[in-house]
Amino acid sequence: MYSRFRQPLANCCAAALALGLAACSVGPDYVRPTTANPEAFKEAGQWQAASTAEPQADEKWWRFFGDPVLDGLEEQVAVDNQNLKAAEAQYRAARAALEGARSGFFPTLTGAAARTRGTATTGTVTSSAETMYSISAALNWEIDVWGRIRRSVESAGASAAASAGDLAAARLSTQATLAQTYMQLRAAEAQLALYRKTVADYGRFLELTRHRLAAGVASPLDVAQAETQLGSAEVQAADAENLRAQLEHATAVLVGKAPAEFSLPAGSGLPAVPAAPRLVPSTLLENRPDIAAAERRAAAANAQIGVAKAAWFPVLDLTGNIGYRNNALAGLISAPNRVWSFGPTLAMTLLDFGARSAAVEQAGAGYDQAVANYRQTVLTAFQEVEDNLSAARLLEVEDAAQARSLAAARRSREIAENQYKAGVNSALNVVTAQTAELGAEANSISIASRRLQAAVQLLKNAGGRVAVIEPR
Predict the structure, then answer these.
(1) Rounded distance between C-alpha atoms, residue 244 and residue 251, angstroms
(2) Structural domains of the chain ordered from first start
(3) pTM of the model
(4) How many angstroms separate the CA atoms of 429 and 420, rounded?
(5) What is the mean pLDDT of each run of 10 residues along the chain (472 residues)?
(6) What are phi and psi of 315, to 5 degrees?
C-alpha cells in the first residue's frame, strides 16, 4: 500500500543520516580550565608525603575513629537524611533532563483523528455543510547539521555530572556534620561528667568548711566562698546537660528522626584522634566532589555557547504526513481516501534585532562565571586543607601543653586542700586551686573535642577517600 512513497521516504532518511554524520558542532570545544596546583601542602609539617602508589582508600572515612556507635549513625544518615533525599531527587531530575535532550536526536511521531463540519466556497457558489472525517500521522525530524542538539546533550550531560557531584558533596557534608555533632555530644558528656564530679567534690568541701566554722577554725567568708563555688559548678553542669540534649536532638534530625523518637545512650568517652590523612594536591582535585561539580558546570556552560551560536544557522527539518480523509466514516481507511506528504523544510531567523548576539554574549559570560567559580572552589579547597592540617598539628602541641598544665593544677589543689585541713592555709587558696584545676580539666576536654573536629574536617576536606598514615 505504501509502495508509492516508501522509496522517497527511505532516500530522505538516508540523506538525513548522511547530513547528521557529516554535521559539525559550532562553538568552542571544551578544555578543562587551568588551576593553581601546588606540589605540596604548606602545613604538611610532620606528616609524611603521599607516595605515587596510594593504598586503597576507604570511603567510610568515619571508621578511622573506631567508634561503633558513630558507624551505625553514619549508616542511617545515608538512608534517612531528608537533605540527602532532596539532593538525590535533584540528581534524578538532571538525569531526566539529559534523557530529554538526547531525544532530540530522534524523530517525533504524532497522531491525530478529527471530525469536522463546515462549508466551502468556490467562486460565488457555497456548498452545503458537510461532515469530514480524518485520521493521520505526522513525523518531524530536525537534522542536527550545526550541532545544536549535540551541544544541548553535551551541556545536559555535564549538568547531570555536576548534579552527581552535588549529591556526593551533600552526602559528604552531611556525614561530616553528623560526625562533628557526635564528637561535640561526647565532649558535652565528658564536660557534664566533670561538672557532676566537681559538684560532688565541692559539696564535700562545703560540708568540711561548715564543720570548721562550727569548730571555730573557719570564718563565714570561707563558707560563702565554698557555697559560691558550688553554685557556679551546678550552673556549669546544667549548661553541659542542656548542650548535650540539644546535640542529641540535632543528631536525631540528621538521621531523619524526630527528637522524641531518638535517644543516644551515654558513651564511654571521646573517640581517639586519628592521624592526618595521606594526600597531595593532585589527589585532592580528584577526590573532592564539589570541585568535580564546579568543573562540570564549566563544561556545561561551554556547551551552551555552541547552542547559542547554532541559532545563527538555518534549521533543517524533515516532515512527513500520512492519513485518510473522507466525508463518511465508513470506508475511511481505504486507498482512495489516502493523503500523504513528505519533504524537507529549511528555516532560519532573518532579523531579530540583536537577540542572537545577546544570547551568545550571555552564554560566554556564563562560561566565564563558571570558570571563575571552579577556580575559586579549588582555591578554597586548598585553604581548607591547609587550615586543618595546621589545626591538627598545633592542637596536638596544645593538647600536650594542656596535659602538663592540668597535672600541675591537680598537684596545686591537692597541696592546698591538705594545708587547709592542717590549718596552715586559707579557704580562699583552696577555692582558687580548685577553680584552676576545673578550668584546666575543662580546657583539656575542649582541646580534645577541637582535635576531633579538625580531624573530621580534614577527612572531609580530602574528599572522603583517604588513607590515614602515622606521623614521622
Answers:
(1) 11
(2) 3-107+145-313+355-468 (1.20.1600.10)
(3) 0.82
(4) 8
(5) 45 49 73 85 60 54 90 90 90 91 90 84 70 89 88 92 92 93 95 94 92 89 92 95 95 93 88 77 81 94 93 90 86 84 88 91 95 94 89 91 95 92 86 92 94 91 66 42
(6) -100, 125
